[in-house]
Amino acid sequence: MKQSLSVVMPVYNEGAIIRAGVLRTHQVLEQAGIPHDFVLVDDGSCDDTWPQLTALADDLPVVRAVRLSRNFGKEGAMVAGLDRAQGDAAVLMDCDMQHPPEALPEMVRLWRNGAQVVEGKKRTRGRESLLHRWAANGFYGLLRRSSGINLRDASDFRLLDRSAIEAWKRMPERQTFFRAMSSWVGFERAQVAFDVADRAGGTSRFSLAKLLGLALHAIVSFSAAPLQLVTLAGGVLLTLFVLLGAQTLYMKAVGRAVAGFTTVILLQLIIGGILLVGLGIIGVYIAKIYEEVKGRPRYLVRADTADKEEAGDDRVR
Ligand code: UDP
Ligand code: MG
Fold first, then answer.
1. d(Cα 152, Cα 161) in Å, to the nearest integer?
2. pTM of the complete model
3. Alpha carbon distance 310, 222 (integer Å)
4. 125-148, pLDDT tens digit by residue?
5. How far is the CA of 204 from the centre of ligand 1 (A)?
6. Which residues, in sequence order, are CB contacts of 159 under 8 Å at separation 6+?
7. Residue 291's closest CA among 206, 227, 228, 213?
8. What ligand has the least distance to the C-alpha of 98?
9. What is the CB < 6 Å shell around ligand 1?
10. Distance between CA atoms of 286 and 281, rounded to whole angstroms?
11. Using 50, 70 and 90 to split pLDDT, how confident is the model at 309?
12. What's the gap in Å between 289 CA and the centre of ligand 2?
């Protein structure tokens, strides 16, 4: 019987707001009569997040807190949480309440009616800077055109049935992109629209550099189109060579060979440029392959409240 729900939250420097967020979510689920538990993953915070999490775990028996050994990034924290989720389904949520817990009962209803993946779809994108919106649009457009996966209104706010979680766990890549991977697995899907709320407190934990890195990673992981672009450029250049070559030979034959230095210089520049860009793109993919073959763990755990002794140790030390 599809019953219990695990709520997985990545938590990074959210000491000021995490307690209120978890309590509010807990209350919503209690009122809806949904059996649930929490897996809170401290992603190497440097504020008082971990003491807050252990206090929550002490106060609420349904809370399990896990502490990673350093900041692995939201993806790593989500994987750590999903690996530990025990429920018949798990829902991924930001802990800053931008993913409204009020949407959970509806997601659970759809799940119990047979959906195996329930996606939270952004109805509005909430408050964000013009630059951020512009960059996000550009990124999603690029990803859709290059990989066919449309994530424009997608978010990490997703409920996964046990079968989808197990399928997702079988994807062996070290560097994950949860949003796209949980679309890739397929299964019976449903959607719930939600409005992105304002952040409960503080500012986004993502810097522009972090976001750009994630965007590049997503495209390289889900599409080989940039590599094909190199081939395409090669094809175009080859056609040009043939045409220019024929013209040159013809000029030579009729004795009208001109001192075409401009053409030579332009050609040199174009070819040199395209070769370097091509090498760069190939380099990005090789770097990805290198990361993957190293096969390093996606995250490392430092403490876990389900492991009472170990967590206790860490607290007295
Ligand atoms: N987060 C994390 N590790 C990081 C950055 C963020 O676990 O390195 C968590 C953060 O605590 C929050 C969620 O990921 O629960 C989303 O982060 P944030 O709200 O800062 O991102 P935004 O809403 O701006 O996309
Ligand atoms: Mg947020």
1. 23
2. 0.73
3. 38
4. 777 778 878 888 888 888 888 777
5. 7
6. 5, 89, 90, 91, 92, 107, 108, 110, 111, 117, 118
7. 213
8. 2
9. 10-12, 14, 43, 71, 73-74, 77, 94-96, 98, 204-206
10. 9
11. low
12. 30
